[in-house]
Design goal:
Helix content: 40-55%
Order of helices and strands: EEEEHEHEHEHHHEH
Structural class: alpha/beta
Shape: globular
Strand content: 15-25%
Distance between the termini: 27 Å
Largest sheet: 6 strands, mixed
Number of strands: 8
Oligomer: single chain
Strand order of the largest sheet: 1-5-4-6-7-8
Protein backbone atom coordinates (compact mmCIF):
# COMPACT_ATOMS: atom_id res chain seq x y z
CA UNK A 1 0.00 0.00 0.00
CA UNK A 2 1.19 3.52 -0.78
CA UNK A 3 0.63 4.83 2.71
CA UNK A 4 2.48 6.65 5.43
CA UNK A 5 1.99 5.20 8.92
CA UNK A 6 1.14 7.04 12.11
CA UNK A 7 0.86 5.84 15.67
CA UNK A 8 -2.69 6.94 16.51
CA UNK A 9 -5.94 5.34 15.40
CA UNK A 10 -9.44 6.70 15.05
CA UNK A 11 -10.95 6.55 18.53
CA UNK A 12 -12.89 9.21 20.41
CA UNK A 13 -11.09 10.88 23.29
CA UNK A 14 -12.86 10.66 26.64
CA UNK A 15 -11.14 13.74 28.03
CA UNK A 16 -14.06 16.00 27.11
CA UNK A 17 -17.79 15.66 26.88
CA UNK A 18 -17.62 16.31 23.11
CA UNK A 19 -15.96 13.43 21.22
CA UNK A 20 -12.52 14.32 19.84
CA UNK A 21 -11.21 11.93 17.24
CA UNK A 22 -7.61 11.01 16.67
CA UNK A 23 -6.64 9.65 13.28
CA UNK A 24 -4.31 7.15 11.66
CA UNK A 25 -4.19 9.19 8.44
CA UNK A 26 -4.46 12.86 7.64
CA UNK A 27 -5.75 12.22 4.12
CA UNK A 28 -7.44 9.43 2.16
CA UNK A 29 -7.19 9.64 -1.65
CA UNK A 30 -10.19 8.38 -3.63
CA UNK A 31 -9.67 8.27 -7.40
CA UNK A 32 -10.19 6.24 -10.58
CA UNK A 33 -6.65 5.21 -11.35
CA UNK A 34 -7.05 4.38 -15.02
CA UNK A 35 -8.10 7.84 -16.14
CA UNK A 36 -7.34 10.55 -13.58
CA UNK A 37 -4.20 11.69 -15.37
CA UNK A 38 -1.52 9.82 -13.48
CA UNK A 39 0.58 12.95 -13.39
CA UNK A 40 -1.98 14.74 -11.25
CA UNK A 41 -2.60 11.91 -8.80
CA UNK A 42 1.08 11.11 -8.39
CA UNK A 43 2.08 14.79 -8.13
CA UNK A 44 -0.57 15.38 -5.49
CA UNK A 45 0.49 12.31 -3.51
CA UNK A 46 4.17 13.24 -3.64
CA UNK A 47 3.40 16.81 -2.60
CA UNK A 48 1.35 15.57 0.36
CA UNK A 49 4.26 13.38 1.46
CA UNK A 50 6.80 16.18 1.06
CA UNK A 51 4.66 18.37 3.29
CA UNK A 52 4.52 15.74 6.03
CA UNK A 53 0.84 14.94 5.45
CA UNK A 54 0.14 11.30 6.31
CA UNK A 55 -1.73 9.94 3.30
CA UNK A 56 -3.47 6.69 2.40
CA UNK A 57 -3.46 5.83 -1.30
CA UNK A 58 -4.59 2.45 -2.53
CA UNK A 59 -1.85 0.59 -4.38
CA UNK A 60 -3.16 0.06 -7.90
CA UNK A 61 -0.75 -2.82 -8.46
CA UNK A 62 -2.71 -4.98 -6.04
CA UNK A 63 -5.28 -7.36 -7.46
CA UNK A 64 -8.76 -5.93 -7.12
CA UNK A 65 -11.40 -8.57 -6.67
CA UNK A 66 -15.17 -8.28 -6.81
CA UNK A 67 -15.40 -6.99 -3.24
CA UNK A 68 -13.62 -4.05 -1.72
CA UNK A 69 -11.12 -4.96 0.96
CA UNK A 70 -12.17 -4.13 4.54
CA UNK A 71 -8.87 -2.40 5.25
CA UNK A 72 -9.69 0.26 2.64
CA UNK A 73 -12.99 1.11 4.33
CA UNK A 74 -11.21 1.11 7.68
CA UNK A 75 -8.65 3.56 6.31
CA UNK A 76 -11.46 5.95 5.38
CA UNK A 77 -12.82 5.74 8.93
CA UNK A 78 -9.34 6.50 10.26
CA UNK A 79 -8.77 9.56 8.06
CA UNK A 80 -9.48 13.19 8.91
CA UNK A 81 -9.77 14.39 5.31
CA UNK A 82 -10.74 12.71 2.03
CA UNK A 83 -9.67 14.08 -1.35
CA UNK A 84 -12.09 12.76 -3.99
CA UNK A 85 -10.95 13.06 -7.61
CA UNK A 86 -13.91 12.80 -9.96
CA UNK A 87 -13.09 11.94 -13.57
CA UNK A 88 -15.04 10.96 -16.70
CA UNK A 89 -15.08 7.21 -15.99
CA UNK A 90 -15.08 7.46 -12.20
CA UNK A 91 -18.60 6.08 -11.83
CA UNK A 92 -17.81 3.00 -13.93
CA UNK A 93 -15.82 1.66 -10.96
CA UNK A 94 -17.96 0.02 -8.29
CA UNK A 95 -14.81 0.03 -6.13
CA UNK A 96 -14.54 3.86 -6.28
CA UNK A 97 -18.26 4.24 -5.61
CA UNK A 98 -18.12 1.93 -2.58
CA UNK A 99 -15.24 3.98 -1.18
CA UNK A 100 -17.20 7.16 -1.87
CA UNK A 101 -20.28 5.82 -0.09
CA UNK A 102 -18.08 5.20 2.96
CA UNK A 103 -16.66 8.71 2.67
CA UNK A 104 -20.19 10.11 2.59
CA UNK A 105 -21.16 8.03 5.63
CA UNK A 106 -18.15 9.31 7.56
CA UNK A 107 -19.00 12.90 6.66
CA UNK A 108 -21.98 12.55 8.96
CA UNK A 109 -20.70 10.12 11.58
CA UNK A 110 -17.13 11.33 12.05
CA UNK A 111 -17.26 14.80 10.49
CA UNK A 112 -14.85 13.68 7.77
CA UNK A 113 -13.74 16.70 5.72
CA UNK A 114 -14.18 16.11 1.98
CA UNK A 115 -12.32 17.98 -0.76
CA UNK A 116 -13.59 17.21 -4.28
CA UNK A 117 -11.47 17.73 -7.40
CA UNK A 118 -12.99 17.52 -10.89
CA UNK A 119 -10.63 16.12 -13.51
CA UNK A 120 -11.68 16.66 -17.13
CA UNK A 121 -15.36 16.52 -16.20
CA UNK A 122 -18.05 19.16 -15.66
CA UNK A 123 -18.95 19.35 -11.94
CA UNK A 124 -22.63 19.85 -12.85
CA UNK A 125 -22.60 16.64 -14.91
CA UNK A 126 -21.24 14.78 -11.89
CA UNK A 127 -23.71 16.35 -9.46
CA UNK A 128 -26.72 15.82 -11.76
CA UNK A 129 -25.54 12.37 -12.90
CA UNK A 130 -25.39 13.23 -16.57
CA UNK A 131 -23.19 12.03 -19.43
CA UNK A 132 -20.74 9.26 -18.51
CA UNK A 133 -22.12 9.17 -14.95
CA UNK A 134 -25.63 8.49 -16.22
CA UNK A 135 -24.33 5.74 -18.53
CA UNK A 136 -22.28 4.13 -15.76
CA UNK A 137 -25.19 3.98 -13.32
CA UNK A 138 -27.43 2.46 -15.99
CA UNK A 139 -24.92 -0.40 -16.29
CA UNK A 140 -24.64 -0.78 -12.51
CA UNK A 141 -28.41 -1.34 -12.33
CA UNK A 142 -27.86 -4.68 -14.03
CA UNK A 143 -25.75 -6.29 -11.30
CA UNK A 144 -25.57 -3.85 -8.37
CA UNK A 145 -29.18 -2.86 -7.92
CA UNK A 146 -29.05 -2.80 -4.12
CA UNK A 147 -26.14 -0.32 -4.07
CA UNK A 148 -27.03 2.07 -6.88
CA UNK A 149 -29.17 4.53 -4.93
CA UNK A 150 -26.60 4.73 -2.13
CA UNK A 151 -23.88 5.44 -4.69
CA UNK A 152 -26.00 8.05 -6.47
CA UNK A 153 -26.69 9.86 -3.19
CA UNK A 154 -22.99 9.87 -2.33
CA UNK A 155 -21.95 11.24 -5.74
CA UNK A 156 -24.63 13.94 -5.71
CA UNK A 157 -23.81 15.13 -2.19
CA UNK A 158 -20.02 15.08 -2.48
CA UNK A 159 -20.03 16.68 -5.95
CA UNK A 160 -22.18 19.44 -4.50
CA UNK A 161 -19.25 20.60 -2.35
CA UNK A 162 -17.64 23.47 -4.24
CA UNK A 163 -13.89 22.99 -4.69
CA UNK A 164 -11.58 22.64 -7.72
CA UNK A 165 -12.19 22.16 -11.44
CA UNK A 166 -8.94 21.19 -13.19
CA UNK A 167 -10.30 22.48 -16.48
CA UNK A 168 -10.06 26.03 -15.12
CA UNK A 169 -6.71 26.03 -13.29
CA UNK A 170 -3.18 24.73 -13.66
CA UNK A 171 -2.47 21.45 -11.93
CA UNK A 172 0.34 22.96 -9.87
CA UNK A 173 -1.89 25.75 -8.60
CA UNK A 174 -4.67 23.35 -7.62
CA UNK A 175 -2.22 21.14 -5.72
CA UNK A 176 -0.86 24.20 -3.91
CA UNK A 177 -4.40 25.16 -2.85
CA UNK A 178 -5.18 21.61 -1.70
CA UNK A 179 -2.05 21.52 0.47
CA UNK A 180 -2.92 24.91 1.97
CA UNK A 181 -6.48 23.87 2.81
CA UNK A 182 -5.33 20.57 4.33
CA UNK A 183 -2.70 22.28 6.48
CA UNK A 184 -5.32 24.74 7.67
CA UNK A 185 -7.71 21.90 8.55
CA UNK A 186 -4.89 20.15 10.40
CA UNK A 187 -4.22 23.42 12.22
CA UNK A 188 -0.62 23.44 11.04
CA UNK A 189 1.62 26.20 9.77
CA UNK A 190 1.31 26.39 6.02
CA UNK A 191 4.71 25.83 4.36
CA UNK A 192 5.76 27.31 1.04
CA UNK A 193 4.30 24.83 -1.41
CA UNK A 194 5.12 26.51 -4.69
CA UNK A 195 8.83 25.81 -4.36
CA UNK A 196 8.10 22.07 -4.53
CA UNK A 197 6.06 22.47 -7.71
CA UNK A 198 8.56 24.32 -9.90
CA UNK A 199 8.77 22.74 -13.33
CA UNK A 200 5.56 20.73 -12.98
CA UNK A 201 3.75 20.50 -16.28
CA UNK A 202 0.03 21.01 -16.67
CA UNK A 203 -2.03 17.83 -16.83
CA UNK A 204 -3.08 17.45 -20.47
Amino acid sequence: MGTENASSSCFPSSSTSTPRWTYEYDVFLNFRGSNTCKKFTSHLYESLKRNGITTFRDDESLDRGAFIKPELLKAIEESKIAVVIFSRDYASSSWCLTELAKVYECMGKKKLIVLPVFHDVDPSDVRKLRGTFKDAFAKHLIDNTENVQTWKDAVTEVAGISRWDLRDELESRVIEKIIQVINNELDREVPSVSEHLVGMESCV
